[in-house]
Amino acid sequence: MNAVTVPGTQVVSRVAKLLRIVGKKSDGVGATEVARAAGLTRPTAHRLLTALTQEGLLDFDTVTSRWFLGPEIYLLGSLAAQRFDVTDIARQSVATLAELTGESAFLSVRRGNETVCLLREEGSFPVRSHVLTEGIRFPLGVASAGLAILAFLPDDEIEAHLRNMGDRNGIAEDRAGNSLVPRFGEEHSREKVWERIRHTRKNGYALNPGLLVEGSWGMGAAIFDAAGRPAWALSLTGIDSRFKPERQSELGQLLVEQAHIVTRKLRAESSRS
């Protein structure tokens, strides 16, 4: 059965979207802001937010009239962390990258057809890029972490991802399958993404030359699970003057080395469990 025909699917999708919206703001979110971000009327958003609060998935501050993630989310997250969370294993590599390069370093995880930033460590260089923050999501192939992961998936999975992203975001693709273009620009056409995939496979690391925010560059390297599939990525971001061609190979080598270290640690951990 196609998922869209399952009764209640729309409600589940709305609830998941609301939780993500609230989770992006550490200082809470008002009902009007949630409604606007979710594409819902304010009464509908308020009704869903109230129901989620009653279940403990959200928490409502009566003083500020803002919603926050609730205690049940914390409990569920703690349980999920036992299976999915690799931040403890990767934390040292993220810190090492920030220390050696002076740039902001990150750990991101693949969640379906997106990457989610899990961990950020600031480097010593005073001018920073703020494109990536903990909790932010991007489709695979957009930011450097997602490109690093996408590049090492099988070709048929890559094609399916590029073809279907439009459907997931309510955007019709064109005949060339350019479903990322309406959101992220012509540099994210199918042809351009494939060009960067080939570059990533050749060099072992991904490069994002200011494609999300002008002047803000990123580089990423994939971390592989026990089955040999790319599931996480380490990345660096900074201003363009810090990512000149003569430095890219140095940064790329550091990223790949630390990604391999984390991969080995994860496999060792998996073999013991």
From TrEMBL:
One Pfam family it belongs to: HTH_IclR
Domain of life of the native organism: Bacteria
Cross-referenced Gene3D superfamilies: 3.30.450.40, Winged helix-like DNA-binding domain superfamily/Winged helix DNA-binding domain
SMART domains: HTH_ICLR
GO terms of biological process kind: negative regulation of DNA-templated transcription
Signal peptide coordinates: none
Keywords: DNA-binding, Transcription, Transcription regulation
Residues in HTH iclR-type domain copies: 9-71
KW rRNA processing (keyword) present: no
All residue ranges annotated as the IclR-ED domain in the record: 72-268
GO MF entries: DNA binding; DNA-binding transcription factor activity
Keyword Ion transport listed: no
PANTHER family from the UniProt entry: HELIX-TURN-HELIX TRANSCRIPTIONAL REGULATOR, ICLR FAMILY (PTHR30136), TRANSCRIPTIONAL REGULATORY PROTEIN (PTHR30136:SF39)
Name listed for the protein in its UniProt record: DNA-binding IclR family transcriptional regulator
Organism lineage string: Bacteria, Bacillati, Actinomycetota, Actinomycetes, Micrococcales
